[in-house]
Write a structure and sequence with these properties.
Blueprint (H helix, E strand, L loop, with lengths): L11 E5 L2 H4 L34 H9 L7 H4 L3 H15 L3 E5 L2 H4 L10 H16 L3 E7 L5 H7 L6 H16 L6 E5 L9 H5 L11 H26 L4 E7 L3 E3 L4 H23 L5 H8 L10 H7 L4 E5 L4 E3 L8 E2 L6 E2 L5 E2 L5 E2 L1 H15 L3 E5 L17 H19 L4 E7 L19 E3 L11 E3 L1 H11 L6
Parallel strand pairs: 1-2, 1-14, 2-3, 3-4, 4-5, 5-7, 6-8, 7-13, 13-14
Antiparallel strand pairs: 9-10, 11-12, 15-16
Helix pairs in contact: 4-6, 8-10, 10-13, 14-15
Length: 487
């Protein structure tokens, strides 16, 4: 029997962006500063094992004093704030069924603790969602995508402070109520498990707010507060917009053991929990039993209030979404070897895989395996909401961009998604990352391009910002038009 897997009818093909990497207009429309707005561009020669930002309060204040002498690429993005109509029209031409964006919290509550929202910010997203609806594109909206108000980081210690839970809940309820007739798919926190690697970017914690020996405790306390905030958003969505669906989102990583040595296998199991812990709590509604030992061994004592556990149990997500760029290799502590870069993580190099220009290991079949693992574990709809290849693109004299490497990468991952659907996985959609070139999250550069649409802009914000189609534009257009049959 010749079995041919197919994507289901109504599959949500599209792409994904974030507000902080695309909108720009950081000081327009009443917007406040976010934690992303003070992340500087780092010259390539200065990166050399560059660490993720983890500034102190004093460093933030010093940055703000001397901001005229620095480059903050996420402040100008790609000017989506003014060009959204043009950009959405290009996505319509691509055939998008869905477009994942995020709302900038600081456009709605500029400092984060106001009692009344900023109407100008609300009106902007009304216009964006109306434009998407006009073109038949389904909005998929992330509530928090690394863009919490800087004020909450400086004055409230970010997600370390339980007060932030209710401030986020006010924000979430405000936008869910405002857009209940325009948005049917919501995501709470982008890549929530990134807080293990990036406490500033994900939790808004500054380096001087917690002693180094207490950092792990702080991360999991912040995680508990985000779990509560996620549950409050779920409750609000189900109450205000019962026909809508709201999901969680994690960095999707599959961890392979370095060898068949039993200790390597167990190391991979433990590392896999850096993903599954976060989906376990949000999709099952309770802390998994394996955390008891982990918390005890690391002297982690979560501060909970009565009713927290019951609230988490009552308000679980409707679907699980995740990003997928790479896999990882795990080993027992005494094993050393060549390391490789990755999406907020690094690890041992896998000799069976090729890597991107930035050293991220390319593993399409890992996506199929991870989809099966999620499906077997939760029996909930799954949504791949980020996947793509960051690469250097060269513009030819006639303005064209030939990017067969991007087509090859995406084709191989989409084929493995199709195989996963054939395995019985309930996959509802796929939004590739950065369909229009945007400012890289990890390095704040434009040189690292993901898009089907080229943006004429360099790392410093110079250029016309004109949009033009790459070869991959026409390829992905055909993929969508044939529901994944022509790859």
């Amino acid at each position: 029997m010749n079995f041919q897997p197919k994507f289901p009818e109504g599959f949500l093909w599209g792409g994904a962006i974030s507000a902080n990497q695309t909108e720009g207009a950081y000081n327009e429309g009443g917007k406040g500063l976010s934690i992303a707005d003070v992340v500087e561009f780092v010259e390539p020669e200065d990166r050399k094992r560059m660490k993720l930002p983890f500034p102190s309060s004093a460093e933030i204040e010093e940055t703000l004093k001397n901001e005229d002498q620095k480059v903050f690429p996420k402040r100008f993005g790609i000017d989506f704030y003014h060009r959204y109509k043009e950009d959405i029209a290009l996505l319509k031409e691509l055939g998008f069924k869905a477009f994942r964006i995020s709302i900038a919290w600081t456009r709605i509550f500029p400092k984060g603790d106001e009692t009344e929202p900023n109407e100008e910010g609300l009106a902007f997203y009304d216009r964006v969602f109306d434009e998407m609806r006009k073109h038949g594109i389904e909005p998929v909206v992330t509530l928090s995508h690394y863009e919490m108000p800087l004020y909450l980081s400086m004055e409230y210690q970010g997600w370390l402070n339980r007060k932030t839970v209710d401030l986020f809940a006010r924000y979430a309820e405000t936008v869910i109520r405002r857009y209940k007739d325009k948005v049917k798919y919501w995501i709470t926190f982008n890549e929530i498990n990134s807080l293990l690697m990036a406490p500033y970017i994900s939790l808004g914690i500054l380096r001087d707010q917690v002693a180094e020996e207490n950092l792990l405790q702080a991360k999991f306390q912040g995680a508990h507060h985000q779990f509560l905030a996620s549950a409050k958003a779920v409750e609000a969505c189900h109450r205000i917009s019962p026909d809508a669906k709201i999901g969680c989102m994690v960095i999707g990583i599959i961890n392979y053991p370095n060898s068949c040595h039993p200790e390597d296998v167990f190391a991979a199991l433990k590392d896999q929990r850096n993903t599954f812990f976060f989906t376990d709590v949000q999709a099952r509604g309770e802390y998994p039993s394996y955390t008891d030992r982990f918390f005890a061994e690391h002297d982690i004592r979560l501060q909970k209030e009565p009713g927290d556990d019951a609230f988490l149990k009552e308000h679980i997500v409707d679907f699980i979404s995740f990003s997928y760029y790479m896999s990882a290799v795990s080993a027992r502590p005494e094993v050393h070897g060549e390391e490789t870069a990755g999406n907020l993580i690094s690890g041992l190099k896998n000799p069976y895989l090729e890597a991107s220009d930035w050293g991220w290991q390319i593993d399409p079949m890992g996506l199929r395996t991870l989809l099966n693992m999620f499906d077997e574990r939760y029996q909930k709809p799954l949504f791949v909401v980020e996947n793509g290849l960051g690469a250097f693109d060269e513009v030819e004299e006639d303005g064209s961009v030939h990017d067969p490497y991007r087509i090859t990468y995406l084709k191989s991952h989409i084929q493995q998604m199709k195989e996963a659907v054939g395995d019985g996985v309930n996959l509802i959609g796929y939004t590739s990352w950065g369909p229009i070139d945007l400012v890289s999250f990890s390095t704040s550069e434009m040189s690292k391009r993901y898009g089907f649409v080229y943006v004429d802009q360099d790392d410093y914000g110079h250029g016309t910002r004109a949009r033009s189609k790459k070869d991959s534009f026409h390829w992905y257009q055909k993929v969508i038009a044939t529901n994944g049959e022509e790859l």
